[in-house]
Specification:
This protein is α/β, with parallel strands linked by helices. Helix content is 19%, strand content 28%.
Length: 341
Amino acid sequence: MKTADFYYELPEELIAQTPVEPRDSSRMLVMNKLTGELEHRHFYDIIDYLNKGDCLILNDSRVLPARIYGIKEETGANVEFLLLRHMESKRWETLVKPGKKAKPGTRFVFGDGLMRCTVADVTEEGNRIVDFECNGNFYEALDKLGQMPLPPYIHEKLKDQERYQTVYSRETGSAAAPTAGLHFTKELLARIKEKGIKIGFVTLHVGLGTFRPVKVDDVTKHHMHSEHYELPQVTADLINETKKNGGRVISVGTTSCRTLETVAKKEGKICSSEGWTDIFIYPGFEFEVLDGLITNFHLPESTLVMLVSAFAGYDNIMNAYKTAVEEKYRFFSFGDCMAIL
């Protein structure tokens, strides 16, 4: 398949700039994954499509306020740092703008001295390896100094940083939110549990590579970025029990999906597992775990459109996206969602 096969026309005004309130009032396009039939609902209706004995698998990763602004100690020049990957201790791989001001050995200061850093090295891609210093806990300092690394297509400033976190986030480490989960409220999750639907958690720390465009014409030639995941034993037991009893395993988001399918391929079964995944799911992929998927609307020609096309069928997804545009659904991170069941 060609990357261009996954293109669709999207008017810019349909790209959501701010989240809706309350979270679960977003619109939801429900697709029957066997027939492609569509229904127009709201996210709080999701409970009507879940049955006792099903389980939802959520990604509990929490977004780092990874964008920090500092000044060059020597000259006072303003510089922006974006934390990409934790390496060891207080060493991080970062994206620095402007990069020419961040040569190895250069020092920067943040928040009137609350945090400092020294550039240790430059990667082949031009990213900076940086050693941070701070008084006290690094993550507490980052909470005070940092801003959410919102995707490049969001131009509005976020008033409440927690709106770019799921209500169940707890494992800090993502550079972007697992956005399918942004629609849940604590009250809705409580109602889902009361109905007899079990909830399990995995952790996949989302990298900024999730926004990288596919630059090859032939889909099969694309190489995915790696992301760290963990599937705990308690979640593995829940999934296996659900399957054994005839229930459905429904992934909330493409990150949860990639975690489950990675483990199934790597281990040959669902069990406790931790590691790095660069799994690339596109049409022709054989799913071993997923029975349903809750997901947002994704960028044209992106690996995520390819993933949902693999799950629900290319023609079904292209028709669903055309319908969503015609019906003026809101797209991307702060937008509306699909439930493919």
